[in-house]
Design goal:
mainly alpha; 2 domains; two-stranded antiparallel sheet; three-stranded antiparallel sheet; 238 residues; rod-shaped
């Protein structure tokens, strides 16, 4: 088991625990040291050491530890350790009993709270892992769809120079937008009426007249792309 940097400490539980209230201040201090040893143990909350070795590690006397055993704080035995059985409760109901530590030969000393908390944490971690597995989705899932905001060709293929930094008004009216007299068959000068795409291009060309150099080229590229798109749309009969 990986070493943990800390363990949870609940001051309210510490102050309300009847067994700890029976202990002296010195015994409570010794118990904190024992808990730190159990926290660093490979079996969380458990020490498989003789009581004298625990006393040596904590810098206390064996009788001090035996006092913790007598008062029901430290649990276990140097010879034969009884089983630790946990009955989980949820929503006011008691679940099936779970044996956290089987009856076995010692030495084996433990904190029942630390062993129980580890069991609950492991159970919750197992549920969390199953939820994470569900979030991965079915292997038969459909591939990702194209984002709704994706550019429509040919706009996505335009060079970066097509983005103008100047303020641009594509709907600026020019003389080509003025209404013309039409006899129903063509223009009044006898020339056939320009198709909508040509008129659209004329309008954009007129708007580009106020630009020069790179800006004019950029506007021209945008106009060409839009005109082509209009031509494609009309060809499809839309």
């Amino acid at each position: 088991m990986a070493t943990r940097p800390a363990f949870q400490f609940y001051p309210g539980d510490w102050m309300r625990n009847a067994a700890l209230r029976r202990c002296t201040h010195a015994e409570r201090g010794i118990w904190i040291d024992v808990m730190c040893l159990m926290h660093d143990s490979e079996e969380y909350g458990v020490l498989r050491w003789p009581l004298k070795d625990i006393a040596q590690a904590c810098g206390c006397r064996v009788p001090d530890l035996r006092s913790l055993v007598t008062k029901g704080v430290l649990k276990g035995s140097d010879t034969r350790c009884p089983a630790l059985v946990f009955e989980p409760r949820h929503a006011g109901r008691t679940g099936a009993a779970v044996t956290l530590i089987a009856e076995q030969d010692g030495p084996l000393w433990y904190s029942s709270r630390m062993v129980r908390d580890q069991y609950v944490a492991d159970r919750r971690a197992g549920v969390a892992r199953s939820h994470i597995g569900d979030d991965k989705g079915s292997p038969n899932g459909t591939p990702d769809q194209q984002p709704k905001g994706a550019p429509i060709p040919p706009f996505g293929d335009l060079p970066s120079s097509a983005v103008c930094s100047s303020t641009y008004h594509p709907h600026t009216k020019t003389d080509t937008d003025q209404p013309r007299a039409d006899d129903g068959e063509g223009r009044d000068d006898g020339e056939p009426a320009p198709n909508p795409v040509a008129r659209f291009r004329q309008r954009w060309d007129g708007a580009a007249g106020g630009y020069a150099g790179d800006d004019r080229s950029a506007v021209g590229e945008v106009a060409s792309a839009i005109a082509q798109r209009e031509a494609d749309r009309l060809a499809r009969g839309e």
